[in-house]
Each structure stands twice: as C-alpha cells, then as structure tokens.
Amino acid sequence: MGFRWRKKLGMGRGKVVVRRIENCTSRQVTFCKRRNGLMKKARELGILCDAEVGVIVFSATGKPYEYATSSMKSIIERYNKYNMKSLEKSNINAFQYHNMWQKEAIRMKREIKQLQDHNRQLMGEDLLTLTLKDVHMLEQLLEMSLHRVRETKDKILNDELEELSRKERCLYEENMKLRKMISMVESSSVAGAGDDFCLASMNCSEVQCETSEAAINVPNFSLQLNSSHSYHVTSKSRVANQLW
Asked: Where are the domains of the chain?
C-alpha cells in the first residue's frame, strides 16, 4: 500500500507542448474535445456570471461552430455598436489631442517671441516701445547683471593669482633643492681634488727618495770596482816578482 502511494505521488501530468498536430486523425479528435470543452466553459460562464457570451469557431475544413447565450445576431450587433462608439470616442479624443497640441504650439511661439524681444532689449534694441517704468526695470536688471559679471570676474582673477602664487612657491622650493644639490656636488668635487693632490705629492716624494738612493749607490759601486781593480794589479805584481 505504501509503495502504491509513493507511486501515485511520483506520477504527474506532463507538460503539454502546444504546437500543430501532424497526424490528421489525432488533430480532428483533439479539435472535437477542445471545442466541446470551450463550449462547456462558455455555457458555464454565462450561467454562473449572468454574462452574454458568444463563441464562433471554424474548423480546418471551414465548418462553423457557434454558441450564444441569447442570440448570436444580437451579440454581434451589440459588439458592432460598441466598436462604433469606441471608434467615435477615439476620433473625438484624437481631435481633442490635435487641438490641445495646436494650442500648445501657439503658446510656445508666443513665448519664443517674447524672449526674443526681451533679448533684443537687453542688447539695447527696440527700446522705443517701452514705457518709462519698463526702461527703469531694464536698467536695474542690467546693473544687477553687470554686478554679477564683475563678481565672477574678480573671483576668476583671484583664483588665477592663487594658482600662480602656488606655482611660484613650488618653483622656488625646487630651485632651492637644486642649489643644495649643486653645492653638495661642488664640495664633493673639491674634496676629491684635494685627495688627488695629496696622492700626487706622496708619489713625487717617493720618486725623489728612490733617485737619491740610486745616486748614493752609484759612487759606492765605483769604489768597489776601483778597489777590486787595485787588488788584481797588486796580486799580478806579486806573482811576477816571485817568478823573477
């Protein structure tokens, strides 16, 4: 029993793919079933909701099927009257929309002309049509505009001066850094030149010492040669005397 219950739970109606049925017999059978179901639903809707329902269905062969709660002719006439009223209403709405947009266009043209006239008056043109009050108001408006323009100009100039002063400070700091670097390089080069001079003087002194030592050794070597020569001469004279 439990197995059957699980089997029932597992079973379910699969999703039906709505597309044209290729088999003619199956298509005719399905048409009859769905047509009867549609007519049944229409009848139930008219009874339950007290609605006037009309359904017209044409088969694939062109045969008509219809259902109406009262009369199909009266339903169609009622539908046509409703369409005529909706069409007239839509025409009236379209006419009203046209008039509304036409009035809006006229209003926009009038506003554009007023703005153009005001712009010319601000430029000093067409002032003869103005009254004394209008001219005075125009003068006040121009003074206020000129004041705002001057304030904006002063602000822009101050901002530019601040930016230039900042750049000047940055350049001054970079210049000082470069000067410090140059002074350090110069000091290091002077110290290196002093060291080279000391090494050169030490090398010169060593060369002078070596030359002096060589000069001292030269007479000693000549003395040694003279003494050896005299020794050989005396030894030769002694051998000659012995022979005699």
From this structure: 22-70, 130-218
